[in-house]
Design goal:
alpha/beta, five-stranded mixed sheet, 10 helices, 35% helix, globular
């Protein structure tokens, strides 16, 4: 603490990102990055942007990128918002849409940035427990609230909700904003973007970090009716009018147009996830049904923290959360087949 701090600083509990260690011959399965390089078209676009005149500011409204996103999802350009990673987009949504007189609802086991943002923006929040199967039950949200945010598929569980249940949730709260965080939607879930024309209270947030393999560029976006997107724009332009650099805009625009690369790499990750799930179950793990680019698993004979430490000794890192109900689980990113084979070999040594 310091006498120079504003009062809110000492009350914050900052988000802790996944570790980025420097370990030789590392198998890095802890931060849900893509195991494959980005689209070559995206890389070429980044190179071209880097060769351009970087002394000039980028397009503050990222028109070309927003047009490309709008074309892919069948919405208007004015219904698309872009930001510096989906985390920034979510932060703007918390500030612009989720602070009301009644509390914000989100799952108790979920993306751990949500309580951080609630604290930062002074939002009263209630954590709604997952059920015994670690699933979101929309019936638990049928009570007065100011707003709702939830990930679909959920993180860190990887379990998704069918689109029909998302629509029921949105329809049951017509006067409250509902934000659906779809960071992992491309690995097996049903996107709620199709519902945007029908519901003026729905905002859908996605990222280029996972299925587009552009975590290093930091590009996220939201799709919603104009009234919601305008709120995000007003917050953004009161904070940072140039959130996306030229390289980020160019790379993301090219990436979202490269369907061939997208379908091929997504398909490989989904196939590897299925094989890894079987191999873990054969070794006694309970593996939650995942629609993400990771699995959430626990072994009945191993404490989660201990197992993560033993894997680290073998240059394999995964994510462990020291939280109630999930402290024995490990979140394991789907890597290449070779990386997952090294994980399984390390587990065989340990078990």
């Amino acid at each position: 603490m310091s006498k120079f701090w504003s009062p809110i600083v000492s009350t914050l509990k900052p988000y802790v990102p996944g570790e980025q260690p420097r370990i030789a011959n590392l198998v890095k399965l802890n931060t849900n990055e893509s195991p494959y390089g980005p689209s070559e078209q995206a890389l070429e676009a980044v190179r071209a942007a880097a060769d351009a005149d970087l002394r000039l500011y980028p397009d503050p409204v990222a028109l070309g990128l927003r047009e490309a996103i709008a074309a892919r999802y069948g919405v208007s350009t004015g219904e698309v918002f872009v930001g510096n990673g989906s985390d920034e987009v979510l932060a703007h949504a918390f500030a612009a849409l989720l602070k009301h007189d009644e509390p914000l609802f989100y799952p108790d086991i979920s993306y751990s940035f949500y309580p951080t943002y609630a604290g930062l923006f002074g939002i009263e929040a209630i954590e709604v427990p997952l059920n015994a199967a670690f699933r979101i039950d929309i019936a638990d949200y049928r009570r007065p609230c100011g707003a709702i945010i939830l990930p679909n598929p959920n993180a860190p569980t990887g379990i998704g909700l069918p689109l029909a249940e998302i629509e029921t949730l949105v329809a049951e709260h017509p006067d409250r904003p509902v934000v659906i965080d779809e960071a992992y939607i491309d690995f097996g879930g049903e996107s709620a973007t199709a519902l945007v024309p029908k519901y003026d209270n729905l905002l859908v947030v996605q990222t280029f970090s996972k299925s587009r393999a552009l975590a290093g560029l930091r590009v996220g976006f939201a799709i919603g009716q104009r009234v919601l997107v305008e709120a995000l724009e007003r917050v953004k332009d009161s904070f940072n009018s140039y959130p996306l650099g030229r390289a980020a805009q160019a790379g993301a625009t090219a990436a979202i147009k490269d369907d061939t690369w997208f379908e091929a790499t997504r398909g490989k990750i989904i196939a590897t996830r299925a094989r890894l799930t079987i191999e873990l179950e054969e070794r006694g793990f309970e593996v939650l049904p995942s629609q993400a680019n990771f699995v959430f698993a626990r072994h009945p004979a191993q404490a989660g923290q201990d197992l993560a430490a033993k894997l680290r000794e073998r240059a394999v890192i995964v994510r462990h959360f020291a939280k109630p109900r999930i402290s024995d689980f490990l979140r394991i990113t789907i890597g290449t087949d070779e990386e997952c084979a090294r994980l399984v070999a390390a587990l065989d040594e340990i078990l």
